[in-house]
UniProtKB/TrEMBL annotation, chain A:
Gene Ontology cellular component annotations, sorted alphabetically: cell division site; plasma membrane
GO molecular function: lipid-linked peptidoglycan transporter activity
InterPro entries documented for this protein: FtsW/RodA
Protein name according to UniProt: Cell elongation-specific peptidoglycan biosynthesis regulator RodA
Subcellular location: Membrane
Transmembrane segments: 16-34, 40-59, 71-88, 100-117, 129-146, 166-186, 207-239, 245-266, 287-311, 331-351, 363-385, 397-418
Top-rank taxon: Bacteria
GO annotation terms (biological process): cell division; regulation of cell shape
Signal peptide positions on this chain: none
Lineage of the species this protein comes from: Bacteria, Bacillati, Bacillota, Clostridia, Eubacteriales
Species whose genome carries this gene: Desulfofundulus australicus DSM 11792
TrEMBL record, chain B:
Keywords assigned: Membrane, Transmembrane, Transmembrane helix
Keyword Transmembrane helix: yes
A Pfam family this chain is assigned to: FHA
This protein's record includes keyword Zinc-finger: no
InterPro entries linked: Cell_Proc_Reg/RNA_Proc (IPR050923), FHA_dom (IPR000253), SMAD_FHA_dom_sf (IPR008984)
Stored CDD domains: FHA
Protein name as it appears in the record: Forkhead associated (FHA) domain, binds pSer, pThr, pTyr
Position of the signal peptide: none
Domain FHA residues, every copy: 93-142
Amino acid sequence: MTLSAASRLRAVERKLLYWVSAYLLIGAGTLYLWKPLLPALVVLAGALIAMIGFWILHLFWCRFNFAADPFLLPLVAFFSSTSLIFLYRLNPAYAERQFVWLMTGLFALWVVTRYFLHYRLLAEYKYIYALAGIIGLLLPIFFGIEQGGAKSWLDLGFFQVQPSEFVKILLVLFLAAFLAENRLALAEGTQRIWGITLPAPQEWGPMLIMWGISLLLLIFQKDLGAALIYFTTFLAMVYASTARVAYVCLGGALFLAGAAAAYFLFEHVRLRIGIWLDPWQQAEAAGYQVVQSLFALTAGGITGTGLGAGMPQFIPAVHTDFIFAAIAEELGLAGSLGLIMIYMLFVYRGFLIALAAKDDFACLLAAGFTALMGLQTFIIIAGVIKLLPLTGITLPFLSYGGSSLVANFIILGFLLNISHEVQITSGRS
Amino acid sequence: MAGILLTILRYLFLFLLYAFLFVVVRYMFRGLHKEHSFITVPDTFGEGGARETNILPGSRDKSVPKAGARLVVLASPNSRLGKGTSFYLGEKVTLGRGEHNDVVIPDPFSSHEHAVIYMHGHQYWVQDLGSLNGTYLNEVRLDRPTVLADGDCLRIGNVTFQFVRWAYEVESGQ
């Protein structure tokens, strides 16, 4: 039963991977024709090797009857293909480095699906994650280097690491383990104060402390984007575990208070809000990035200028935070809506995995990772199209950035492991 | 020539993006269909008899209750309260999300103390206990204690029960 279920799932995955391969090769072919003067065979070779990487992983899973969700790998292969194509188009040097990081990410995914199948054991060490997470966030404050206004990078000689990307995973692991243990107490409350049932401090204290420290550290590093993601993921997980709207309202009120405080305390927050409200006033200075991004979105029109035919290079940081603007320019409204829909399908599969999960820890872990992914996508795309104030974070799997990519592949590995477990146990019963 | 080919490839690239989206959605839809039938197969198997019977307080001390009745779960999204489970009703049965209830309804739309079913004058009455999302009897929201009749559907959140009076009880009891 499980054997045939696994092979049926992998067959779906194989068919979807054929489509992704065609997509990547057509994209690489377009880029080859676009500038055939370059040593452009690199792009075709790179595309082929990247695809072979995904295929090897797929064949490995077939071999070991891995019964995980068949959609996530093709979806991520699609994001990675788009990432490689657009980074090559923007600056081949970035694409080459992203290629190396993609290989590292695939290797990390292989490690997670091979050696962390019994992820449930991880629930035992939750306070170690809390400690490791806090250390991970503290390090850049003392030894870090500043890039793009945020002091959140560690220099490790020939490459740089952003610990906050990995601490995301630790935060979700900690919260899932903690909430799974104290879910009922938090949901029902044990004390009655002013007619509202509230849980005792020992049930919410450690969680609030861990979360508060990480927020403070991120604010200290001026990494507002990461702070926002941590905050919203935290609220999503608390709501998923307790189903109490009161906590979300309380969190929202706290957020508003915190945002107001940050607005009056920090100069760079005031600047960001000012740009968001009216970028045109300072279109040549601070608002330049957002204004150029809006120009790019307009230039794209419905079907876009075509791959390689746009001018996204005017947008600062177009290869990381603003890659969505480049995609929207060259693939147009059609392409960017398609991309957003594919992100939504990823989130949909993630929540399906959470719903099917066998126990609270697995369910909260899947829901937390999925919420993290979805919120991150929403926040950065909303920043690029000026729906929300801009916060510098990466678009998952698409932006240039090694730490982010590898961390996202680890998250993907956990989602796959959870769905594998569901398939195996439902097949047996 | 190369220019035309480039244009074609550019459109082909966009087309493949949507082709991939379409294929993924189609497979997901097919999978949903399959999962759905996968879920219903074991349930129709268990429909012949109650999979699980829970005897509730009140019915145990009397060997033959005066008016016996049971609640059968018709639909429940949560596996903790499986479809086909039946609860034999005693003098008084409480329903809700809290673990102390006689019938625990693990549904997010259920209140902790959601409803109560009690016997009064040889008839079963159902009363909503001021729940947030209401108790629905045959899809009408309860606003006062109401008498239950055989075959009535009682819905709390996403969980639907059917109220069944024991057939032989009507004969032997009167």
